[in-house]
Amino acid sequence: MSKRGTELMDKVSQQVDMARELLAEAADSDLMRPYVDREKDHSVNSVGAAALHFIEGYQKIGRLLKTAGCVPAAEGTPHTHGHGHAHDHAPRLPEVLEKLDGTQKVLPLLADLTDTQLDSVPAVKNQWADGERTLAVVLDTIISHQAGHLASLRDALV
What is the pLDDT of residue 126? Predict the structure, then answer.
């Protein structure tokens, strides 16, 4: 456990709490509204699909920590929303809230990261990890990306 891991956990916790507050005020009809991605880098067509994509970002953190060898395989967060990555449907609010609650699993994984782990370079290469950036930088990049999704969701729901 490190101070840096705890700080990462706190950032994610704040984002999830903000999303929960936003969604608690929403109705199923709000999730069916058209969604315009301000980043223009994802193909989602409804607010609900965008919410699922936002939630998936935290699942990616869990999978990254698993593939980087930072947590046992059983503790990684699976991809659970059960459809293709087009996110082309508007889910119901209970489904979204249930999946958002599932993101809590990643919080202790972040808090338990050591400075050695955070300073390591993940061997896995994907859109976030390039084989050169440290795990801390990769995680911070993902969390920052999530902040953009949260801002877009806020714009769409308010």
Answer: 79
**Consecutive H or E run containing 60:** helix 47-67
Q: Quick one: which of 120, 109, 154 has its CA closest to 13?
A: 109
From CA 43, how far away is CA 37, in angstroms rounded? 8
Q: What is the pLDDT of residues 15-24, one digit of tens each?
A: 999 999 999 9
Place of tokens 């891991």: 5
Query: Helices (DSSP H) in 82-134: which residue ranges?
Result: 93-102, 106-111, 115-119
- Among 25, 22, 50, smallest CA distance to 36 is for 50
pTM as predicted: 0.84
* Half-sphere exposure at residue 88, Cβ-oriented, CA atoms within 13 angstroms: 4
Buried b (16+ CB within 10 A) or exposed e, 8-28: bbebbbebbeebeebbeebee
Per-residue pLDDT averaged across 91-110, rounded? Answer: 93
In the block, residue with structure tokens 């920052």: 144
% of the chain beyond a pLDDT of 90: 61
